[in-house]
Write a structure and sequence with these properties.
Length: 61
Amino acid sequence: MIYCCEEHAEYALETVINESGRPPALQPVEEKELLTKTCEYCGQPAVYVVANGYSHTKYGR
Ligand SMILES: [Zn+2]
């Protein structure tokens, strides 16, 4: 999971894609977390969470 600001959302998406090889899930930060989470790249308040999209799926590779 990567927390990021609006500016770095694309950056975070690419990072997750490169790491997992799967389309990530981009979600808005929950309201209660808005002021407690910061962007991993610039330290500004985070507005998005990028998560590995389908981590529970494992095919035999
Ligand atoms: Zn940022």
